């Protein structure tokens, strides 16, 4: 690297905190910690922070040549846009509310997709690995809730752990990058080269 080249910043913490914070708020509702009437607070948060922050992060990860980061952040950013658009358009009476089975199958497929991405995280640090582990479990539990298995509240609690974990990873990556050393542990990869 020459003196005129600038080392690119790590965009992942932005996407992780956008994902994590939005997930914590929605999961607090699903877990029963907040009432259902708190849901309107999540919709703009999902558009602006969960959605836009992750979409921007995905594009920056593309510029960094990180295929996993590009796919993960862009996909989950668009997940939040889908979720927020669904809440907004149903709430405004623009479309009919989908059936519970339709939502359940959609969340189930997000769980399958997330499980697939989780396999790649075995080469990442344990903190990122655990975010994806908790996320696919959350999707499966939320899907089960919509499919009549009564697992929504448990999905909320696992989602809360997932979101807090993602926020920790974001803070750890910013802190470690700022100090130029590992201040907050992220754990070694489960699989090495």
Question: Could you characterize what this model shows?
Answer:
With 193 residues, the protein is mostly helical. It has a single domain (12-178), classed as Serine Threonine Protein Phosphatase 5, Tetratricopeptide repeat (Alpha Horseshoe), CATH 1.25.40. Helix content is 72%, strand content 0%. The chain has 6 helices and no strands. The chain has helices at residues 12-30, 39-63, 67-91, 100-120, 126-146, 152-179. Helix 1 runs antiparallel to helix 6 (152-179) and helix 5 (126-146) packs antiparallel against helix 6 (152-179).
Q: Proportion of β residues?
A: under 5%
What do we call the CATH topology? Serine Threonine Protein Phosphatase 5, Tetratricopeptide repeat
**pLDDT < 50 runs, ≥5 residues:** none
Q: What's the pLDDT, averaged over the residues?
A: 96
The number of distinct β-strands equals: 0
Can you count the helices?
6
Shape: globular
In angstroms, what separates the terminal alpha carbons?
25 Å
What is the alpha-carbon Rg in Å?
Answer: 17 Å
What structural keywords apply?
193 residues, mainly alpha, Serine Threonine Protein Phosphatase 5, Tetratricopeptide repeat, 0% strand
Please render the helix and strand layout as text.
Layout (H helix, E strand, L loop, with lengths): L11 H19 L8 H25 L3 H25 L8 H21 L5 H21 L5 H28 L14
Helix pairs in contact: 1-2, 1-3, 1-6, 2-3, 4-5, 5-6
